[in-house]
Amino acid sequence: MSFTGKYELQSQENFESFMKAIGLPDDQIQKGKDIKSISEIVQDGKKFKVTVTTGTKVLHNEFTIGEECDMEMLTGEKVKAVVQMEGNNKLVANLKGLKSVTELNGDIITNTVTMGDISYKRISKRI
């Protein structure tokens, strides 16, 4: 199953509490909470390019399944991570105390990021 496509955020859960927990400033949280971000994914075999545009903020990460890479977090910090694929529709990454699971089902992509006992969930639809 190919992840390639553009996805628009449809809904999110626990945005504010999760962003506070990872240390995002309140002004950025308030600016970002109502913006419908667009995620663009380009998959070429095991190589991925992911660009998330939220208003004027653009987050860009590239990785190859199973290989260590540098990933930029929402806070702007760059960390080392390894992304694994489970089955043919799930990407799992552990980075600096966070676990990110991205699952594709048809035209719906669900991303759940967990830190300790706080989870943040985003549901986006292919456009």
Ranges where pLDDT stays below 50 over 5 or more residues in a row are: none
Overall average pLDDT: 92
Strand content: over 45%
Overall SS class: mainly beta
Radius of gyration: 14 Å
- How many domains make up the 3D coordinates? 1
InterPro entries: Calycin, Fatty_acid-bd, ILBP
Function: Binds free fatty acids and their coenzyme A derivatives, bilirubin, and some other small molecules in the cytoplasm. Involved in intracellular lipid transport.
Organism: Calypte anna (Anna's hummingbird)
Family: Belongs to the calycin superfamily. Fatty-acid binding protein (FABP) family.
Question: What labels describe this entry?
Answer:
lipid-binding, 2 helices, 127 residues, Lipocalin, Fatty acid-binding protein, liver, mainly beta, 10 strands, ILBP, Fatty_acid-bd, Calycin, ten-stranded antiparallel β-sheet
Textual characterization of the structure:
The structure is a single chain. By secondary structure, the chain is mainly beta. The protein has a single domain, classed as Calycin beta-barrel core domain (Lipocalin, Beta Barrel), CATH 2.40.128.20. Helix content is 11%, strand content 61%. It contains 2 helices and 10 strands, in the order βααβββββββββ. The protein has helices at 15-21, 26-32, and strands spanning 5-13, 38-44, 47-54, 57-64, 68-72, 78-86, 90-95, 98-105, 108-115, 118-126. A 10-stranded antiparallel sheet has the order 4-3-2-1-10-9-8-7-6-5. A hairpin with a 2-residue loop joins strand 2 and strand 3. The radius of gyration is 14 Å and the shape is globular. The model has no long low-confidence stretch (mean pLDDT 92).
